[in-house]
Each structure stands twice: as C-alpha cells, then as structure tokens.
Amino acid sequence: MKVPALLLALCAAVALASIAAAATHHSSRVVTTAKNSTLGETTLATTNGRTLYSLSAERNGRFICTNKACLAFWKPLRIAANITPAGAPHLGTIKRPDGGLQVTYKGGPLYAFAADNKRGDAKGEGFKDVGVWHAAAVGSAAKQPAASSSGPGGGYGYTP
Q: Taking the model in full, what pTM does it have?
C-alpha cells in the first residue's frame, strides 16, 4: 500500500521544515539600557538611543494604540517573527492587532515617542491620554498608575 509511504514522506518533510525554521530563529539586540539624566533612572532605549515607553492601559494583551493618530506619535518597537529580542532581561514579544510582532518589557508593549529627537530625550514621560505613558525603567518597579480616559495629552480618538 502506497499511503503509509506517502504519509511517512510527508511527516519527514514537516520535520525537516520545522528543523530548518528553528535553525533560522536567532536572538538580536533590539534594545539597550542607558542612564537617563532627565529622569534620573536607567531606562530602555532603542539601539539608536531613543527612550522606550509603555502605556499603563496596555496590559494582558490589550492594545490601545492601534489607530493612525496614536501611531503617528508612538512608534511600536517591531521585530521580525524569527527574532528573539535581546539587550535587557524581561524582554518578550506580543502579536499586534495588525499581525506584526512588538517587543515587550515585563509584559508591556514598547514604543518610541516621535517628539524625542535625540539620544536621551524623554518628552513622552507622563504623557496622558487613555492611560499614562512612562519610560521603561530598568531595575525598578514599573510605574503603573490607574488608566485615565482623558488628560492633557487630549487622547487621539481611540477607544479603550
């Protein structure tokens, strides 16, 4: 009977494809740590030195920053599917609503702020809209204030 031979060949092909996929998966330094003199803390930054932030309301797989208005200010730290983020402890990834992968720190998705123009800028710290944006501080308890539905940041028309 030819079916078992075909099934065996198919299983072998799937196994080889899995091995090849695993072999192409690797770690990549996507963040660095830097003493931020403005904040007086060591924070996570992109490899180009831009401060990274997380939004207090984005926890447990819940995304708030998904529309064009929000994403114009807050740039997700994205990563390819075959990369494991490196550069600091407690990094991970989460699947964004658009299907891409975003780097997380202690479970919170990481973003760069468009108004931070140079290394060490932290203009997004404390920015309020549907939550509060905070720089990802290393070695200290993450700032997790209660989410706010409005504030001086004005919100961007996205709903929690």
A: 0.74
Q: How far apart are CA 28 and CA 31, in angstroms?
A: 9
What's the CA gap between 11 and 119, in Å, rounded? 51
- Domain segments of the chain: what residues? 29-135
Query: Per residue in 43-84, pLDDT tens?
Result: 999 999 999 999 999 988 999 999 999 999 999 999 999 999
CA dihedral 27, 28, 31, 32 (to 10 degrees): 90
